[in-house]
Model the fold of this input.
Amino acid sequence: MNPKQNIPTVPLARFIKHSFEILKNPLPFHHQNFEEQGDVFRLKIGFKNSVIFVRDAAFAEYVLQKNQRNYTKSKIQTEDLVKYVGKGLLTSEGDHWKKQRKLIQPAFHKKQLENLLGSIQSAIVSEYTKITPNKVIDLFPILNDLAFQTVVKSLFSSAANQEDINRLQYITEAAQKMLVKELRQPYLGWWFNLSGEIQKYIDLTQEARDILKRIVNERRASAVKEHDLLDMLLDAKYDDGTSMEEEQLIDEILILFTAGHETTSNALTFAAQLLALHPKWQEEIYKERIALMSESDDLMDLVTKSKVCQQVIEETMRLYPPAYFIDRVNIEPDTFNELHIEAGSNLLFSVYEMHRHPKLWERPNAFLPERFDEGSRKFSSQYFPFGAGPRKCIGNNFAMFEMIIAVSELVSTYKIHPDFDTIEITPLITLKPKNAFLKFEKRAL
Done:
């Protein structure tokens, strides 16, 4: 039997016919294919190339956890993204990844993160001063700056000046936009190379690397300990007692910028929009914060005991997962539930579809934070906001702590009102919000 016949196939002609819609937003196209073909289908994207799309959560769990040794990340991350951010944790594989993960993991343990909570809160409160009360504003740019500033302060304390921060943010976001163009328009790859467009962004990335090297060298020369993430990365030692080489350190910092700010700003924006549409949950978070602050002003207590706030964030990331696709390629041929996957198959797991699958979730399209009243662990086989298995996001605790502080601070200061009818999305490398127009009413003290 030809293994390709075992998986329903969407022909190349259909892909080409809908190419302009896919360029704007591929999710409706994929959803229709899932509805027509089932939870696994093959999409032909060229005469020889195809991608297997999956919204079967058990299949995802099998690939990401149970048989993860047979699966590697796709060329998108291990080659296409590498040219802009280097070979850090997100883009590396095999022994190199294992070595880096073991080295960096301690920096993201909860005890270490406790030292950063003050810097995180300070960056958040500072950015919220940009909110103009009683006026409709687009919240996303503010939260985007907030998330970037939070990563910068956690990494460098006060070592980076505002000019450097602005430039690093611009380069990080510009490189991501270029990568989206490459992925959505692969047929223009020859032009992107010939015209020098790709080289322009590679040169920009080198500028970012030079800025980071200067900051790192100034820290080394100062011999001052800030107890931030940069210190932890500089002090980290491999099993043989050596430290990270400079180029590898810069790779890891660029990965933290790329993975650490956009996903968080997206999730926070969606959370604010959902809270605007469901004011009852604003008041629940506000009451919870008042109660917790009356017992303790310790930030670690706030982030670990804000149960209602965490439920809201968990439900936000179920409906609008920032990392809405997970890609893998199998090394050896494999079989799952009688589906034959030939070696070298490109698999895309739709986290967005799995998080809204009617067989997995009650009222899947409704905002129901109460479904997480016992935490997210009971949904671990179908809920993947930070991925799953050994490659689960190393910064998941950092991100949750940051988002809890950010949402709690926002709701304690303002009542949020919507100035939009429905939440719209822009699926790029991450799932981005589109129309986060909100009005903020100052709470009476």
Remarks:
- The domain at 55-442 is CATH 1.10.630.10 (Cytochrome p450).
